[in-house]
Amino acid sequence: MTDSVTTALTLDSGAWRARWMQISTVLLLVGGILAIFAVTKGINSLLLTRFVTEMLIHVVLVLGLQVFMGNTNILWFPHIGFMGIGAYASVIFSMGSVQKMMSLPDLYPFLTGIEMGFLPSLLAGAVVAAVIAAVVCFPLMRLSDFPAVIAGFALLVVIHVVLVQWSALTNGPQTLFGVDRYTYLGTATIWACIAIVAAFLFKESRIGLQLRASREDLIAARTIGVKIMWVRWLALILSAFIAGLGGGLYAHYITSFMPYAFYLNETFVVLSMLVIGGPGTVSGAVVGAILITVFYQSLRWVENSEALAALLPGGAGGLSTLALALALIAVLIWRPSGIIEREELSWSSVKKIGSLFRR
Question: I need a labelling partner for 257 at 20 to 30 A (CA). Which of 18, 134, 181, 220 fits?
Fold first, then answer.
């Protein structure tokens, strides 16, 4: 009797310890985002505020990509395409009728009279991205490995061509202007925290566990009854929804953009953030987005500086992209699973890091 009670208490203690580690991960990540927000507000620099706002939008985008790519181990290119769909859809829903006539003169009449507030238009744009992903991508969920990568890249090209050519909705290859700015530092902070919680809850959900089981061994997952296509499809819908949110935040932050903003360059940057940070963990997605934004934007400032232009008469165009590509190659060689591989950040991991510095 005593042995059974001891065993039960040990099991309860282990379950509580595991649950506490999960809670501490969310608290650490959300606390880190809030700390960045507080420091930025305290410094009160316009340049720093814009930089951090853009960084937090990237946190949302990378977390959306982690929901699908991190849990399935499928290299997924169309994510930024769904970001573009969310951006254009949310702008159409939030623009006033007069501004639509100026910015989108060929817009369909039934859309001209629609005018929502920022939050409804942001959510509506995300829903549009998720619905399109659900309809278009369901057949692709049966693919794995190399065929899935090629099909995903082809889908990104398709989305880009549609955005460029569908001038009634996007103004074609020209810049869409006149978007009201609703995304500020506080807005981006709130949505980054929400995205962290959503990505972590999904990862620890039953569907997330099934996805990771299929990621580790596809055949074994099928034998225990995991419906591979369905769980991938549900993950993709949530991933596209978060990408649409990120697109809406970006559109109402930058206020003027064109379809090329949602193509290869942004795809490369967001993929690099996830791969370098660690696609298998939510912590890796957040850390990768923050580190690469600081690294990439710092190099862009150096690239555009007058001092460097004086030293290099031909200019240093492409320096930031080249450096990011080399950093990505280096990480893939020496740490293929990213900076944070399998274990999420938690109080215990922070204590371990702290003990290393105290030695």
Answer: 134
